[in-house]
Amino acid sequence: MELPGVVTEGSQLTHYEGTEKLLEIWFEPLRHRNGDIHGQGTPDLKVIPRERLVELMKLVHCEIVSEKCRDEHHAYVLSESSMFLSKERFILKTCGTTTLLSAIEPILKLAKDFCGFTFKTVFYSRKNFFRPELQEVPHRNFEDEVHYLDTLFDCGAAYMLGRINGDCWHLYTLDICNGQNQPDQTLEILMTQLDPSIMKHFKDTTGRKAADVTKASGIADLLPDCQIDDFLFEPCGYSMNGLLPKDGYMTIHVTPEEEYSYVSFETNIELEDYGDLVNKVLTTFNPGKCVMTLFASKTAKCGTSMKALSETFLDKYRRHDRQFSQFQTYDLTFATYIRDKKV
Amino acid sequence: MELPGVVTEGSQLTHYEGTEKLLEIWFEPLRHRNGDIHGQGTPDLKVIPRERLVELMKLVHCEIVSEKCRDEHHAYVLSESSMFLSKERFILKTCGTTTLLSAIEPILKLAKDFCGFTFKTVFYSRKNFFRPELQEVPHRNFEDEVHYLDTLFDCGAAYMLGRINGDCWHLYTLDICNGQNQPDQTLEILMTQLDPSIMKHFKDTTGRKAADVTKASGIADLLPDCQIDDFLFEPCGYSMNGLLPKDGYMTIHVTPEEEYSYVSFETNIELEDYGDLVNKVLTTFNPGKCVMTLFASKTAKCGTSMKALSETFLDKYRRHDRQFSQFQTYDLTFATYIRDKKV
To answer: In the record, what terms sit under GO molecular function (chains A, B) (predicted)?
Structure first.
């Protein structure tokens, strides 16, 4: 299979875009004006038949390569990143030159048809690509993505955090006051310029076992009580989903090639402070640069995201940017860091 | 004189871009490595000869229409907005289709030649234009402006606050850790969709006195101990500079036409909290929407800008967005508000 996102010049690989597009949609039952539930079906996204998910992945140009269930959620490792389904939450994260936005209309329809669901809130986000010109339309620039999303949603709000002439991160969400009523938090750490001695774990993978890499790299020790579904790509590359209790998850994706090395870490684990976890992740991967985002809903255990993202790692990293944004039912801290040359 | 920025279709005025471009440069004496002052000249921007400022304004496509001095600074009302010179600070704010960026290289050279100065920090900012396509290159989009600024400065950092698909505000500044070592703060309130009954003060100006408009509109009462230089344009439009003690200033510019009404308020007055002043400005102009920014340097009296911009006006206005950004020697609060329809 020729992987999307791989550019071949002659027979030489020249680029793989590890940078993911990330979609998270929260659903709720469609209701009549009097509050009665209107929709048909079982109000749980996990009832959507697997073959429908396979079709959905085809639209995005990727496929399911592994899957694991735990209590309240299903996690899928994809040929390009991951998908998570819990009762009311759908997460799709895809890298390469996948066309993630083409999944939105179909998933809204599947959720309506099988679960009687309508969307409650939506997040689409991504870091700036290494090579945007290699993406499919409308993913080549964020303005085009926003234009498409605005055709689907009435109250979309699009933001650019970080630097126009440097590392930045794009977000599209909905500006609605009843968007989220439960505790929720998401931490993402998007790392570049990774330590080649660490990236060796994820290269020359032929004949090796994913579980060994998960252990040797330190990934297995990042979070306790985590059921891991890990996958090694050939000749290089690594993905893992970790299922935590309730609908908790973590997910890591590694593009180890030095020219465009990229590692993403994401979790929704409920903590009061994320400083120690961030420190552990940075120590595990030792990136030259990273973009960090923490979303916290108004009822999240951690309080505001700025307070909860304590900078326990300033002995090794210098803060480049930090921005705190307040939305209707979430707040967000965005920050970028650069490894201190003295370390 | 045909004003730049005025589009005529047949003989009908169709648009005037009130939205200003704003440049603020702080200077300091050029020094040898041993700390000795290197530059020639008097270290005070006010020694730059007036005819050189007149030439500078020609490059930007505007001209000086009025001027006033107080102790430590000179304030100029321009055909398009304002200019302020104090010992080490240069501020140029121009609207219409002026080409503000073309003033940067010349002012850096004037400051070097006459004052032995080099720049300490730079801020270029503006709200999104009503009609960007009517601007001169490179002002049609912020990316082009950033590209130009990056040819002048090594460590520029460019940001977009607010919404890509709504009201936003652009900032270019320098990422240097010794950028500002003294207390400094700047509040801007950029208002649109203004109350037509208030805008009447600034229309049909022929034969009227600026001082009467300043008084009748309530502008005279906004800040105490303010020496005012006000100017009425014909057939409509208003500008004022207010000189406060030391190098304090306020400046207001009004484009009253209903189709593209715009009022800007800016001051560097030192306060502990800006809530009451903001409330007074909003009451004076009653805008439908506004963008607010407050910069505070690390040694500013008000502490962090977010704390200092208390929202005393949430009985009349709904917060649309709020973002807090931390730079090396300043922090910034950006917020947008919409007038509550119930009021």
So the answer is: adenosylmethionine decarboxylase activity
Q: Does residue A1 sit within a domain?
A: no
- Is B268 among the domain residues? yes
Q: Is the pTM of this model over 0.90?
A: yes
Count up the domains in chain A and report the number.
Answer: 1
Q: What is the CATH number of the domain that holds B298?
A: 3.60.90.10
The complex scores an ipTM of 0.93
Tokens (6 digits) for B270: 């030192």
Which residue in A124, A138, A231 sits closest to A172, CA to CA? A124
* B86 is known as an active-site residue: no
Q: How many Å apart are CA A336 and CA A217, to the nearest integer?
A: 24
Q: Is residue A331 part of a domain?
A: yes
Residue among A128, A145, A141, A146 at smallest CA distance from A334: A128
Task: Give just the sign of the alpha carbon dihedral B49, B52, B56, B61.
Answer: positive
- Which of B86, B239, B261, B297 is labelled catalytic? B239
Which positions in chain B touch A156 (Cβ < 8 Å)?
165
Bridge partners of B265?
B189, B252
| Cβ-Cβ contacts under 8 Å, B324 against chain A | 306, 323-325
Q: What is the DSSP string of B26-41?
A: EEEE-B-TTS-B---S
Domain extent, residue B12, equals 6-339
Mind telling me how many Å the CA of A328 is from chain B's nearest CA?
A: 8
pLDDT per residue as tens, chain A (343 positions): 344 455 555 444 589 999 999 999 999 999 887 878 777 889 999 999 999 999 999 999 999 999 999 988 999 999 999 999 999 999 999 999 999 999 999 999 999 999 999 999 999 999 999 999 999 999 999 999 999 999 999 999 999 999 999 999 999 999 998 888 899 999 999 999 999 999 999 999 999 999 999 999 999 999 999 999 999 999 999 999 999 998 999 999 999 999 999 999 999 999 999 999 999 999 999 999 999 999 999 999 999 999 999 999 999 999 999 999 999 999 999 999 999 986 5
Catalytic residue among B139, B253, B261, B305: B253
Interface of B with A (CB under 8 A): 142-143, 146, 150, 156-160, 162-166, 175, 306, 319-326
Is A182 within the bounds of a domain?
yes
Q: Which of B142, B163, B325 sits opposite A323 (nearest CB)?
A: B325
